[in-house]
Design brief:
Length: about 270
């Protein structure tokens, strides 16, 4: 059985697709077979990222480790069970097709609450929730008292994850390993960073997730997308001397992969 990694929250612009692509490519570079799905059927940022990579490799005559990206197959109305949701059928069919061929399946969810996202969360062995380091994004996870900064209760996304955990428990599946990723950490605003960090640590104990540092705000991530590249590809392109920012970003990816604690994964980059 493939290990399913779901990357999601209900807010756009948190770095979900960048996280998906870098985790998927890192695993592929370790020799793992990686399947990939994008459930944002309109914007398809992850899907476009992979397509850009394939197009760049074709132009340059390169063969870089790449996840096996699939579109969701259309549901055949004649084969749907009575009352079966067509979206459920499309996702389950795609996962079943990839599962026999993959060590890992990475699923990128849209930045909104959808039926596909809800079902995907219930499939997650590992759930990664990238979060911009601000209380605007924190509100997705929990409500907070503005005077005391104390957490007063879970919010909409946390409740969806709780429902997914209950579904898995009833099905006899292992619990979701949930990691909240602090993305776009800036060098400034140290006071705000400390307050957000303290609130996340408090909340993690209440609703059961691990907090991990993610990717800092760097120009390199915006520059890599049009060619479908990741930090790990730069040396294959002849970039031997990485600048300090690129080296730091590469270390952030290494730290993330280590923190995910994925089965059978030994870092080699």
């Amino acid at each position: 059985m493939a290990h399913i990694i779901v990357v999601g929250n209900e807010k756009g612009g948190s770095g979900k697709s960048t996280t998906c692509m870098h985790v998927a490519t890192a695993l592929a570079r370790m020799g793992k077979k990686v399947g990939a799905l994008d459930l944002d059927l309109r914007q398809r940022s992850f899907g476009r990222y992979v397509e850009n990579r394939l197009a760049f490799m074709a132009r340059e005559g390169l063969d870089l480790p790449t996840p096996d990206y699939r579109e969701l197959p259309e549901a055949d109305a004649a084969t749907l069970a009575p009352g079966e949701n067509p979206l459920d059928n499309r996702l389950s069919t795609a996962v079943a097709q990839l599962e026999t061929e993959s060590d890992f399946i990475i699923i990128d969810c849209p930045g909104s609450h959808t039926r596909l996202s809800q079902v995907a969360h219930s499939l997650a062995d590992t759930l990664i929730t990238p979060l911009n380091d601000s209380f605007i994004d924190f509100d997705l996870l929990a409500r907070i008292d503005p005077e005391t900064s104390k957490v007063t209760g879970p919010s909409i996304y946390s409740e969806m994850v709780w429902s997914a955990r209950q579904l898995r428990a009833r099905a006899g599946l292992k619990p979701i390993d949930w990691i909240v990723l602090r993305n776009r950490l800036g060098a400034q605003q140290m006071h705000n960073k400390k307050k957000v960090g303290a609130a996340l640590e408090q909340l993690s104990k209440r609703i059961g997730f691990r907090v991990a540092p993610g990717f800092s705000e760097r120009v390199i991530f915006r520059e890599l997308f049009p060619r479908g590249l990741t930090l790990l590809d730069l040396r294959d392109l002849g970039v031997e001397n990485l600048n300090m920012s690129n080296l730091a970003a590469r270390q952030e990816l290494r730290d993330l992969m280590k923190e995910l604690r994925l089965p059978g994964v030994e870092l080699n980059f």
